TrEMBL record:
Name of the molecule in the record: Amino acid permease
Pfam family, one: AA_permease_2
One GO cellular component, as annotated: membrane
GO molecular function: transmembrane transporter activity
Protein topology in the membrane: Multi-pass membrane protein
This protein's UniProt keywords: Membrane, Transmembrane, Transmembrane helix, Transport
Lineage: Bacteria, Bacillati, Bacillota, Bacilli, Bacillales
InterPro entries: AA/rel_permease1
Cited Gene3D superfamilies: Amino acid/polyamine transporter I
Length: 511
């Protein structure tokens, strides 16, 4: 059993082999690494904020079947990413894996696509906080909740998350640890409350798996597919365990387990929660026609005061989720910027001397996320009859951006294996063995499928936003990439085989 100091030295040397110095404070344990991804997934954010979306399109069967189907395929994607995190343990994660497996250009595109997804997920999570907090605050302070007041609350939440992340990784890690336990506790409170105190009792269990009912104008099969956004957006952001890998002790084992376990635990706890919430519905039509379906269901089931207490508990869980998402986003920008991948990279790669956090990257993450929601706000002022919701727009952008970024290194790993460039010896201690290739292939098929589903009407605005961002990306490729980006330091002049050769030398030397 290694001491912590011995493990830290080994982790530092592994990182040095990839051309990077240990700048970030490496102080996160296995549970903290798991907790940040579990908190970003946050079943009390995605499944709750898009509960009305899922119910509207897929009916109650969305909660029983839709959640389970999505969770199964996402666990395969998570397992595929876990392998890569174990093999190449750097904070650049997705983009660094892509660059090491194929080349700097594909790595650069992966990074920017991931950044687009990260902007969407931070904006989506903190906007979810605002969607719940604003009407609750309106009830306390006696004002009318509007799109404008929601945007203001959203800005305040982002500001608080920026301040907490700026202060340091230690406090964020502790809050993430607390957040994981808090999520489990709130789910337990919600489930017990609905099981024993629901005013009209629970529906029969088969109601949870009732299919064929949709409250949209779409045919049920298509409506069900559109409703999958609820579950699919919930299961995003678990690459956070990889983005904080340089702050994790024994990362080649703990980070992969953090990625995979965060999805697995979220599936179980989320299914239990959704089951009881759905079984407490006695007016589905009223729920889908309300301003917030989840608030409607809980208020009807538990009553005013008790229902509000539960809703505040859920809102605080969302707050912790947003805190973790800023952490992940800022680390990704920091890692990309230290390789000069962004304009003004020297600022975003700068580490605060006092707090040892990428302070400027943290505040850039806050600003970009606010701008995305602000653009949507202005668009709706110009076109008040827009047939989509802000939360659906933000979440679809994040799903497509993140999952395309997830898929690129998985595909490149399969490609490298087929050419004999990525061999069994290149895997880390966390690997899928003979199941690796079929799991990778199924993961890619699911990613392609779900990205198409996420941008079809009524969510075509997400497609337009993504197309616009991609056009900007191509312009930046022509104007910035060729002049400034030389690639990850490890991928610049070293192939995957060379990287592994250096690691083997280190291992033999240590023995």
């Amino acid at each position: 059993m290694k001491s912590k100091d011995q493990q830290l030295l080994e982790d530092k040397k592994h990182l040095n082999r990839y051309g990077y110095a240990q700048e970030l404070l490496r102080d996160m344990g296995g549970f903290s690494n798991f907790a940040i991804s579990f908190s970003i997934i946050s079943i009390l954010t995605g499944a709750v904020s898009l509960y009305g979306h899922g119910l509207t399109y897929g009916g109650p069967g969305m909660m029983g079947f839709g959640w389970t189907i999505v969770a199964f395929f996402v666990m395969l994607v998570a397992a595929s990413l876990s392998e890569l995190a174990s093999a190449i343990p750097t904070a650049g994660a997705l983009y660094h894996w892509a660059a090491a497996l194929k080349g700097t250009r594909i790595g650069w595109y992966t990074a920017w696509i991931n950044l687009i997804g990260q902007i969407g997920i931070v904006a989506g999570i903190d906007y979810s906080v605002a969607l719940f907090a604003d009407p609750l605050l309106a009830g306390i302070f006696n004002y009318q909740s509007t799109d404008t007041t929601t945007l203001i609350v959203f800005g305040v939440v982002l500001l608080l998350h920026g301040i907490l992340n700026h202060i340091g990784i230690k406090i964020v890690a502790k809050l993430n640890d607390f957040s994981a336990w808090y999520h489990m506790a709130v789910v337990a409170i919600l489930v017990v409350s609905l099981a024993f105190f629901t005013k009209l009792g629970l529906q029969p269990i088969d109601y949870l798996f009732h299919v064929g009912q949709t409250f949209s104008d779409k045919p049920y099969f298509l409506a069900f597919l559109i409703g999958l956004l609820q579950a699919q957006w919930t299961f995003t952001g678990y690459d956070a365990s990889a983005h904080t890998i340089e702050e994790t002790v024994h990362p080649r084992v703990r980070a992969p387990w953090g990625i995979f376990n965060s999805v697995a635990f979220s599936f179980v706890f989320g299914f239990i929660m959704l089951a009881f919430v759905t079984l407490s519905i006695h007016d589905a039509n009223g729920a889908v026609n309300s301003d917030n379906a989840f608030i409607f269901v809980i208020s009807k089931a538990l009553g005013g005061t008790f229902g509000n207490i539960v809703l505040w508990l859920v809102t605080f869980a969302m707050f912790f989720c947003g805190l973790s998402s800023i952490t992940s986003f800022s680390r990704m920008m920091y890692a990309f910027s230290r390789d000069n991948g962004m304009p003004l990279s020297r600022h975003w790669a700068e580490i605060s001397r006092k707090f040892r956090t990428p302070a400027k990257a943290i505040w850039l993450a806050v600003i970009l996320s606010f701008i995305l929601a602000l653009i949507d706000y202005i668009t709706k002022l110009v076109n008040p009859d827009a047939g989509y919701s802000t939360i659906a727009f933000l979440t679809a952008v994040s799903v497509v951006g993140l999952y395309v970024a997830y898929g690129i290194p998985i595909y490149l790993k399969l490609r490298a294996e087929s050419k004999g460039l990525f061999l069994p010896k290149h895997y880390g201690p966390w690997a899928l063995g003979k199941w690796s290739k079929p799991i990778n292939v199924i993961s890619l098929i699911w990613i392609v499928f779900i990205c198409i589903i996420m941008v079809i009407p009524p969510n075509q605005m997400a497609a337009y936003a993504l197309i616009g961002m991609f056009v900007v990306l191509v312009i930046m490729d022509l104007s910035y990439y060729k002049k400034h980006f030389k690639g990850p330091q490890a991928a610049l002049e070293k192939s995957v085989d060379e990287i592994r050769r250096l690691e083997d030398e280190f291992e033999h030397g240590r023995e």
